[in-house]
């Protein structure tokens, strides 16, 4: 898995909500998990989205469709509770880099220019 995400772009930005990456094709429609196929959600009721900087698996809107794509929240996102596998958080001043990405100029389909 070493180097898997090297050079992968943030292909989707929803201002004030999230930035998404992890698709090696850069289109937002690709992605392959380490396991080769999609994998199940791992949702814990106590893990919630109360603030910015939380890292979770992106899916296609249905349960158990995780692959290589993930997102980072730019603000509180209560509507995501119970829908995405939350697995990390951005620490320290790195959040300012994430917020800067979230301010990028956008083209069609929430894609940064």
From TrEMBL:
Known catalytic reactions = [protein]-peptidylproline (omega=180) = [protein]-peptidylproline (omega=0)
Q: Where in the cell is it found?
A: Nucleus
Question: InterPro entries, alphabetically?
Answer: Cyclophilin-like_dom_sf, Cyclophilin-type_PPIase_CS, Cyclophilin-type_PPIase_dom, Cyclophilin_A-like
Gene Ontology CC entries for this record: catalytic step 2 spliceosome
- GO biological processes: protein folding
Return the Pfam families for the record: Pro_isomerase
Enzyme's top EC category: isomerase
Which Gene3D superfamilies does the UniProt record give? Cyclophilin-like
The source's domain of life comes to Eukaryota
Q: Keyword Isomerase, does the record have it? A: yes
EC number(s) for this protein?
5.2.1.8
The answer to whether UniProt assigns keyword Isomerase to this entry is: yes
What keyword terms does UniProt attach to this protein?
Answer: Isomerase, Nucleus, Rotamase
GO molecular-function terms, A-Z: peptidyl-prolyl cis-trans isomerase activity
Residue limits of the PPIase cyclophilin-type domain?
Answer: 1-113
Position of the signal peptide: none
Q: Which residues cross the membrane?
A: none
Outline what the protein does: PPIases accelerate the folding of proteins. It catalyzes the cis-trans isomerization of proline imidic peptide bonds in oligopeptides.
UniProt similarity note? Belongs to the cyclophilin-type PPIase family. CWC27 subfamily.
Query: What is the name listed in the Swiss-Prot or TrEMBL entry for this protein?
Result: Peptidyl-prolyl cis-trans isomerase
What organism does the UniProt record list as the source?
Thanatephorus cucumeris (strain AG1-IB / isolate 7/3/14) (Lettuce bottom rot fungus)
